[in-house]
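debug: dumping io for the single-chain case to check the tokenizer round-trip. Nothing else runs in this session.
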Amino acid sequence: MRTGLVLLNRIGGLWLLLGLAAVLVLPWYKVPPPDMGGGPSLFGTALTEALIGRWWLLPPILAALAFAAVRILAGERWQAHRLVPWIAGITAVLYLAQAFGIGLRGPAIGGISLLFPMAEAGQPGLGPGGFVFGIALTGIIAEALAVRGFCRGERFAANAVVFIVVLLSLFVFFPILRLGSAALFSPDGIFQPGLFITRLTAPDLWGLNCLIGDGRCGVVINTLMLGILSGIFSTALGLALALIVARTGFRFKGALRAVSILPIITPPFVVGVAIIVLFGRTGVVTGWLDFLFDVPRTRWVYGLPGILLAQVLAFAPITFLVLLGTVEAINPTLEEASKTLGGKPLATFRTVTWPLLRPGIAAAFLLAFIESLADFGNPIVLGGGYDVLSIRIFFAVVGARYDLGNASVLAIILLTLTLSAFWLQTRWLGKKSYVTVTGKSDAGLFAPLPGPIKTAAYLAMIPWVLFTLGVYAIVVIGGFVSDIARFDLVPTFRHLSTAFSFEIGATGLELYGSAWDSLRTTLLVSAIAAPLTTAVGILTAYLISRQDFAGKGAFEFGTMLSFAIPGTVVGVSYVAAFNVPPVDITGTMAILVICFMFRNMPVGMRAGIAALSQIDRSMEEASQTMGASGLSTLRTVVLPLIRPAIFTSMVYAFVTAMTAVSAVIFLVSARHNMATAYIMGRVENGEYPLAIAYSAVLMIIMIVSIVIIQLLIGRRQLGRRSELQNTPPAIPAE
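debug: decoded output
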């Protein structure tokens, strides 16, 4: 144990050892050199590769040896030597140029590029040696910056900041840049910049015929209309639910909260499938309406109405949770002041309450709008002839004709719509103050809801609750009857057996069901991604909240950018960036874990920042005064105090990894398939009962997993004495 602590305390020496191992021991590329006949990995090291002709690997070799020489001459504080920044900087530039300059050319001799020779040499993907050297070089640069005062000389903080910046650059910014460059190439790989304008101005993207005539609108207009409508209705419904919970005497608030959580842990296709089963041409409700009231059967559920209905059902709970916190945070004394001055309830709501709700409403609308734009499951199930960008991007990548350039243009349009929504939100909120929680007492009573608003809230809530219960009745029943779509309600476990059949034989447990592989992959990816996502998110929150360093504002913006990028864009950008060397990881489990990590990291970061803002820095300062390092202070003081934020981040990361589809649908492979991709295949084949049965199993697994995560993380103990020791504890609101 002490040996490990010594290594951590002398982390600069550890980076040097990693650098030497990367160039002298580990294979630099994923495959051994052809001249070695596929021999042992030792023959693929950077040193032996350079000796057989790949001379562009000399810079990392010479740099590692130079660092070792400086270490011998300068001692343990070798990072402070004036040569280290120059060696590290030059090596980093050459390393990046050679690793990521594939396809680029410069001055050439004999047809071989001097700047990017590996482009002609057919460089394979980087192996362990190439990646470990990049890690070691990053650590050496971080140590050198810490010695020169970066992060006030705190070595752990400096290493954390630099490594997170490198990871964001590689897995957030680099894929977006590669996506943009792919839009300039033809399907045959020919560089044609004019093709970008042709693709961008295609008539089928921007047509307005549905607004000014009887035709159809372009796919961009369809997507924008759907996003705006979904954002408006989801936000309005979420606000109605929040007002009922926070401002009325509704007796079943706990049940309403429970119902609102269900769509969050529901796989994306279930809602669409349930709507078809209920309201499709042969649906349950449609059949009863035809039988009882002679209402003709139609296909109204396919297209904009059906997609909008499914999205509002799925996104309203998210907007409800956002707006509930906003409503509860409003200082009641402000409304009391309006009432004292003679303001009527409706006027008070319009002039006091509504303006203070603007930040929450803007955030809820933005969240629903982005989720609508990125939604893939509902449009592909209920779309019919209503084309949206997420579906068009999907078929451009996985269709009969692989056209990454066209998919890139569509993804850029989708990203532009998202960033434009962020800008409009900022402009709408402006620079006004919305602060209502201060150090002063706010012991006033909330003003009752005006009668018309209360009535409208209940009128919105009741149909939503009934519809939600109907959808989940389909989920509970549909997987365990013969065919609920045809109203064949004979109980059966046939669908569950098809997916998860097994036998216990002489050799042990043998799994035969068709869904076992996808379930194993999903659980493994989620179990790996959730703690990694939480670790990076909480560490980033700690750096932003507790450290001062140059470029802190840009660092925070970069961490939030990945959350603003729709999942569909993330998936396509990863295909563009990581389908070719040097980081060719498409089709592996690693790309799934990485995708979830940097897609969900901002949620853990924001939860961590909110938790840290409530903790006085004096406790951390006391720890450091006692001689603890930054890492020890984080581990022994900070983390135990922010367990609620850790729980929130872990649960969100796990549930999202279990249910996401818009990003991973481009990244799954035959070897590493995900549960949502399997369910989508069953839905496309019309196997609704099997899809519903699998979804029910996933929901049960997620509920059990949330309980396990709570037990593992535990509860925060603040050491407060109960004021009313003889009084039974009140039932918590949440």
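debug: round-trip ok. The chain has 33 helices and six strands.
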